[in-house]
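#structure-requests
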Amino acid sequence: MNKRELTTLIAERTGLKKKDVHATLQATIDCISEAIQAGERVTFMGFGSFYTQERGLRMSYNVYTKERRHLDTRKVIKFKSTLPKQDK
């Protein structure tokens, strides 16, 4: 599902205009992005949490040139679900 499909689904379920739903959804995404960039954890009870984690120094290998190099530490975004696992 992409943002356009999510906007349509929310508009159908709420009866709101797609334009208003899109603006609200974009504002929500912007707020979540800003909080994560500031190092905050964003938690939605019953859904999950977005947070940053530092990834350590590691080696990289280019399969074409056979070159090895070190990759610096960096922050990555993680998501941990609180939804119950479903059997397949």
